[in-house]
Amino acid sequence: MGPWYAVLTVVLLAVMLFSARVGAVRFTWEEMWQSPIFWNLRLPRIILSVLVGAALSVCGAAYQSIFRNPLTDPYVLGISSGASLGAAVAILLGLQTFLLGVGACALATGILTILIIYRIASIGNRMHATTLLLTGVCLTFLISAVISFLMVLHQDKMDSIIFWTMGSFASASWVDVAFVAPVVVAGTAVVVYYGRDLNLLLAGSETAKSLGVEVEKVKKRLLLVTTLMVAFCVSTCGVIGFVGLVVPHCIRLVAGPDNRRVVPLAVLVGGTFLLLCDTLARTLMIPAELPVGCLTALVGAPLFIYLLYKNKKTY
Amino acid sequence: MIEVKNLTYRYGTRPVLEGLNFTIEEGGFYAVMGANGSGKTTLLRLVSGMLTPQEGEVVVDGTNVQHYKARELAQRMSFVRQHPQTDFEFSAFETVLMGRNPYQRHLQNESERDWKIVEQCMRQTNTWHLRFARPSEMSGGELQRVMLARALAQQTPIMLLDEPISNLDISHQFDILDLLRTINREEHKTVLIVLHDLNMALQYCQKLLLLHQGQVLYKGDMREGLTAERIATVFGVKAEVGEEGSIRLSRL
Question: What single DSSP character describes residue B238?
Fold first, then answer.
């Protein structure tokens, strides 16, 4: 696997360099290093999108193993939306200048969402696949209704809330990067640490336990860590869907299902994928910008439908 | 040694096992038998620590199974379940390699020794030729043998097997039971195996644990225990037990 990591790292760096040069303002190499647009706007945006893409992909891979369902990711499960509700409430409370406050609110509602999903979809110690997905979809509907309601009540803050529901890196700053980076790095390290346990969880809770996994402890830790990652990402860039579905799935097609490979590869591939999507989002229709969530959904939703079709018998 | 003390388990209000007391000595080869719904699977899940009993306890080597760390328990006891769950497509080799998990630390990769053990276990269960196969490419019987290989790779002194030969053709049934008998004799492993075939049980297992209506109807030597009356009580069929150790069954 060694060469793969090297190749994918080079690809990621190349896409970062490419992305830095293109946009509403195009740079030559010399101009780029001297431009404040590069240093203050473009570079933090590039790094943030790589971090968020990596985080969402790692979380997607983890959720797919924990819930034993290849169709789950932070968005489909409703966890991203759940976190966005907390973020929206935080803005209404006037906390937006204080990122940790927004992050904490997003984390709280994200965890609440997971608890609701767990309550509804678990039958004994199994998660029912269809119920799990339906619960996620319904929670997303419910939450977007609540957010719409909040928006009507507070029309003055509509712009900053709408941003949370559609997903965008347009306002990315170094503060956002400093806020998200430690959580993403530490969270990914935890998921990598439990890589083999994730594999065993795929065989079912009881089997995993009989093979030496402290199932409840591992699940709780991983759910907490991944929800923290999602909540912090959502706090800076809003809800971006399907990244956690598309990326691990593509990796498994090539590298197989072993999470000890899937998770580290998800960092590189996920970062590259979301950076490419964001670069397209800001360059396709200059001077206008597309919401990046729109592009990821254009890729992700058809894949989701294809997976549903392929697994028709099981779901 | 497995000590079962006053073990009681209910699904909702329906009692499945009521106040069971018995001891399984080290190196015993027990067939766990009984009619459908007599609590065989529940008993194995309780012994393996998967289920928590409402009353009583299971003590393995002096410690309540509920108090073991998962890793320690997985080094003492392996469990082959009746219905293996396989949603994601790990190859048979990767599946068996998971049996080495209790001996590995986090972030530690499998050693050459682990690989050798896996190969040996797969050869013993006649699954080595399937090592690259995915679950969807295997038959029920092949999958069952892969699961058995995984349990063997755990190298535990106690093995619990819930109907491990139900999907196997007759020749593989003999192979697997021969293998279990060999490791029971040579490595002195304790084996608890749920079987439905009375003749197979009589032929292979020295000991019998017979469950009936949530109680232990008999525990002890197989040949003494498997009488026509008990078979009639438990299964409701007529049995003629022959001198040479075979059983002819017919309707009552």
Answer: E
